[in-house]
Amino acid sequence: MRKSTISKEDVKTFFRNNGKKIALKTGLTLLVLFMITAICLSIYSIAAYSDLRITVDLSDEKQTVQGFGASMAWTFQRMGLDATDEVKEQAIEMLYGDSGLRLNIARFNIGGGSLDSNLDNVPPYNNGWFDKDRRAESFFKAEGFLDADDEELKAAFADESNYDFDTRDQGALGMLDMALATGGIDKIVFFANSPHYLMTVSGTCTGAEVQQNNLKEEFYEAYCDYLLIIVDNLVKRHLAGLEKVPEIVISPVNEPQWDWGGEGSSQEGCHFDPEPLAAFYDVFFDKLEQFNAENGTDYKCDVLESGNYKFYPGRVDIKDYLKAISKYDYFDDIEYISAHSYGADDSKTHRDRYQNYIDDKYSGLGISITEYCEMEGGRYDTIESGLLLGNVISRDMTMLSAVDWNWWLAISPCDYNDGLVYWDDYGDGNQKLSVLKRYYVMGQFSRYIDKGDVRVNATCSDLTGWAGLDYSAYKKADGTVVVVVINNSKRDKNVTIGGLSDYGNVTTVRTTSAAQSGWDETAGEWTGRVSLPAQSITTYILSK
């Protein structure tokens, strides 16, 4: 086959005949790109450098807030046993006390029994990838039923005499008692990552295979009995006599869409496909209704604890679980489902997609954010890490109208970004508690926004969002207004906050990048004009 060739003369002739057209088109293209760039820079300059206005509309009410919390998982067990009294008291004050975060939601972990000694040499607990510090104790005395058949086990799980509430999990329960003694706990969520291992297909608290539906279908009722017996006994033993009795919520499932099985399983967890999970909840709601009627209790069920609210094309995601549970009658009684913010982080896109879907398919269904942490190794004591948390909270509260918001681990001993308070036990009697910037950012919300406060609408003149502001506003029953504003920009901002002209007094609480900055508080006269330091979060508490 003959190859065609282009000579230098052909090229010269082409450009001689077409050069002006090419130059004109290139010039026009460059001009358009220049104009677009100039317009974008102009808009950015206006957003980034001009004075901004946030307008609060007190008449436009959104969700009623239930509060803020964190999980009492794993570390609480060891800390309750090994920490000094001084350290335990200090930790509880830092989390639930008036001088600390003032958290009003406690999430207590019901272990699935992975800590039982008979599992010490059983995969995955004997593998390097399983975190030994995340094995959890169960109140059920499994040692008497290791060789029992299914019918014997079902009867055993329904018998209170087969549970030990006097010696099991006493470290975590001691810490719970101390938290309750502060008088600030309004709600306790008893959550389980896995059913008891004797109910599972794999015989352990993780699946033997990836995405294995690990709770045996014939044990759906037994798992309900197990949870209700445990929760009811803990309530009777640890909440009796309290002046303020917290709301009791049971969360039987946690992050059902994740693998929770096979190589790499590092903690208790149980996968459910959407249809089996929906069927299990049908059993649980029936059992819960019957139990409340027979015992005069008012325990509630937390539904879903989805690993996140992101959508995954071609994969099972939260939409599939909502579709499955919406087929059952109990769905009509669900006011809100719970989800975690992992993967979404501070993305506005993921929140928009989720909320648009809910508005279209399940209008009126609320959301509770029950878990989040920054999934990174290390302990990032930076304002950037702190403000990431602030943005996640602010956007979950405003874009999703979350009724409450919970961090993952209240206390962590790890070199990982999963703790509000860090506990270092050096093994020689020397113990230390420490916090990062995120602790103070969390407090900008949890210390000043209380159960019963109502979020109200707020808008900003920065329509593009390029100015780097995040904001939310809340009003209390006594008329007090709380406004939280985050300046993510590396530049100071001057902002006018409108709609609050009836207010004359303000307490300003601020956290900045300065090493010594915690909750820096000042009091003064409210004018509506505020200055926001670069990379800061500020809470304004206004009264008349």
Short structural summary:
The protein has 544 residues and is of the alpha/beta class. It has helices at 8-49, 75-82, 85-96, 150-157, 170-181, 220-238, 274-295, 318-325, 348-361, 383-399, 437-446; strands at 52-64, 67-71, 105-109, 187-191, 247-251, 300-301, 336-340, 366-371, 404-412, 419-425, 431-435, 454-460, 469-475, 481-487, 493-498, 505-511, 520-525, 529-532, 536-543.
Strand content: 15-25%
> Which fold does the CATH topology of one domain refer to?
TIM Barrel
Q: Please count the helical segments.
A: 11
How big is the Rg?
27 Å
| Topology order in helix (H) and strand (E) letters | HEEHHEHHEHEHEHEHEHEEEHEEEEEEEE
CATH architecture of one domain: Alpha-Beta Barrel
Tally the beta strands: 19
Per-chain topology:
Layout lengths: L7 H42 L2 E13 L2 E5 L3 H8 L2 H12 L8 E5 L40 H8 L12 H12 L5 E5 L28 H19 L8 E5 L22 H22 L4 E2 L16 H8 L10 E5 L7 H14 L4 E6 L11 H17 L4 E9 L6 E7 L5 E5 L1 H10 L7 E7 L8 E7 L5 E7 L5 E6 L6 E7 L8 E6 L3 E4 L3 E8 L1
Parallel strand pairs: 1-15, 2-3, 2-9, 3-4, 4-5, 5-6, 7-8, 9-10
Antiparallel strand pairs: 1-12, 10-11, 12-13, 13-14, 14-19, 15-18, 16-17, 16-19
Helix pairs in contact: 2-5, 4-6, 6-7, 7-8, 10-11
